[in-house]
Amino acid sequence: MRLFTHNMLSSNIKGVANGFPLRIEAEQVLEKQVDFNPDFLRNLFPKLEWKALVDGARALGYAELPEAADSSMLESEEFLRKVHHALLELHLEEGALTCPETGRKFPVNKGIPNMLLHEDEETSLQLPGSLVSQMLVRITGKQ
Amino acid sequence: MSNRPELLAPPEIFYDDSEARKYTSSSRIVDIQARLSERALELLALPVDGIPRLLLDIGCGSGLSGETLTENGHQWIGLDISQSMLNIASEREVEGDLLLGDMGQGLALRPGIIDGAISISAVQWLCNADKSSHEPRLRLKAFFGSLYRCLARGARAVFQVYPENIAQRELILRSAMHAGFAGGVVMDYPHRYARLPSRNLVLSFS
């Protein structure tokens, strides 16, 4: 998984108000070269959550991104190349993504995050009240 | 392989390592998937400006459809419920990012960020209730609702599906409409693409 995906991914566990961004725990990171395409980056830039990208890159061992960014920086090839490297060339191979609200870990193996929710985490189920409160206890840890 | 694998078992069980490999090494299937993917991409009607987009491949399997997206210059995120299929996609070193996930649980993506979504031969799996707690209507709702939210304004989603019957097709369409999608059905008949095995619907929404 690379950071352009991480920047889009959120936790959709039932009851979570804001599941973004997922915190990255990196055990193995690989770098793979990708052709530089500034058009793609300029087009994607307005959609990025910059802080999540900076933090994510740091978690993957890359600390060259500026803390803040604005669209005027898109004129600079040097800046674009850093964004390119962070978004497209760093692969989280082994590790985990953690939901910021619940602490629930989504494991990452062979570069693939396992985002499968357990049945009691699903929003698509309709549960009777007693099961809802049991689930809340499990998620929040509070009685 | 049965013509209707979704009647045999849920996709994560049907597409085990052996089935996944069979699927991906069948040249007929590879050819069909490539044609369907090209057609879906065509129907996405992305601007012809040479700018690569960020696309979703829902039910990406072993990456056959994703390769079409890569060949056309786009970046993509693929979602599939079968670990075996995704392992093959990894082995084949597809260029997209892969996620193991269940579309019926909702797509865990931020709002308004995806430039287009394709889904080849996948959405009909949602119409089967495999676990006793899974009501297909709820799963379709979770899927279409979350997909609608994560698409950028003006973005489209194209689904090539093999519905079992008219009722299933209507269920899929209704669920999509309820989620806010507008659009319609493009029917591609077998005689246009001589090697397609059965009738299929291409749904294009925006």
UniProtKB/TrEMBL annotation, chain A:
Q: Which GO terms describe its biological process?
A: rRNA (guanine-N7)-methylation; tRNA methylation
InterPro entries in the record? Trm112, Trm112-like
**Source species, domain of life:** Eukaryota
Q: Name one GO molecular function term.
A: protein heterodimerization activity
The UniProt entry's sequence similarity note says:
Belongs to the TRM112 family.
Assembly and oligomerization: Interacts with TRM9.
Descriptive protein name: Multifunctional methyltransferase subunit TRM112-like protein
Which source organism does the UniProt entry give?
Salix koriyanagi
Lineage of the native species? Eukaryota, Viridiplantae, Streptophyta, Embryophyta, Tracheophyta
Automatic annotation (TrEMBL), chain B:
Return the Pfam families for the record.
Answer: Methyltransf_11 (PF08241)
- In the UniProt record, which is one GO cellular component term? nucleolus
Stated family: Belongs to the class I-like SAM-binding methyltransferase superfamily. BUD23/WBSCR22 family.
Q: What's the name of the protein?
A: 18S RRNA (GUANINE-N(7))-METHYLTRANSFERASE-RELATED
Q: Which GO terms describe its biological process?
A: rRNA (guanine-N7)-methylation
The source's domain of life comes to Eukaryota
Q: Does the keyword Chloroplast apply?
A: no
Q: Subcellular location, in the record's words? A: Cytoplasm; Nucleus
Q: Gene3D superfamilies from the xrefs?
A: Vaccinia Virus protein VP39
Key words of the record: Cytoplasm, Methyltransferase, Nucleus, S-adenosyl-L-methionine, Transferase
The record ties this protein, via SUPFAM superfamilies, to: S-adenosyl-L-methionine-dependent methyltransferases
Please list the GO terms describing molecular function: rRNA (guanine) methyltransferase activity
> What is the originating organism of this protein?
Salix koriyanagi
- List residues of the Methyltransferase type domain: 56-158
